[in-house]
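the two lines:
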Amino acid sequence: MNLTLILFIVLAVVAVASAAGLLVSRNTVYAALFLVLNFATVAVFYLLLGAPFIALAQVTIYAGAIMVLFLFVIMLLGSEKLPRGQVLPWQRPMAIILVAILLAEAGLLLFQRLKLTATLANPEASLNTTESLRTLGMLLFNQYLLPFEVTSVLLLVAMVGVIVLTKKEKGEPG
Amino acid sequence: MAQTIPLSWYLAISALLFAMGALGVLIRRNPLIIFMSVELMLNSANLAFVAFARSFGVLTGQIFVFFVMTVSAAEVAVGLALIIIIFRNKHSIDVDLMNSLKG
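prediction for all of em together
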């Protein structure tokens, strides 16, 4: 029982609990805040896995930009709470059964294909240093340059699309 | 120190988070929460990517996570814009009301 193991277990509990909070909370703002907590714990998982760049990108992009956008839309629409309406009676049990099957399948694959004690390879690779950042940047801008540029075009298209979608036409009411 | 945690534990957490995201998509009727559950699923896939990248000692998994993050940012922007337009037309965002293609 060392420090990393304790940290991992605590983080896992927090991650699963915050995901459960997202599922059950009635108020959308609380759900968004639970999701921020979940993203933060996953960022610490990334740090444990020796991926500092991804961890910080997670905090800035997911927990920062994306969740701010979510909260902004929640407050813009004033849709913190939806009235309880009629739901399909079999929807909830059906969903739970399907997800249980999915989990059982994943667990089965996990236990069959991977030895549970298989540890992470080359822990001494010192991925936590600036050297890994340099390697990551070189990889991104050499081998993956084309996908990188395509991604920038994708972001541009998304931005233009959103502006066109939400712009009011001339003469259109409210 | 970090090597004491097996790869399969990370994969188990990832699978659990993915299943919870899928459950959220299936049982909730608020499109914003459905959207957040989709983000949860993407995030759990990212966790599996990084865990495998660490396990195999290559950085390609991290590069892929970077791309997934970018695509999900674009997806969130477009999706929230769509939700805003639906709210403008129907004055509600309950997914049960989105049952016709005609605006």
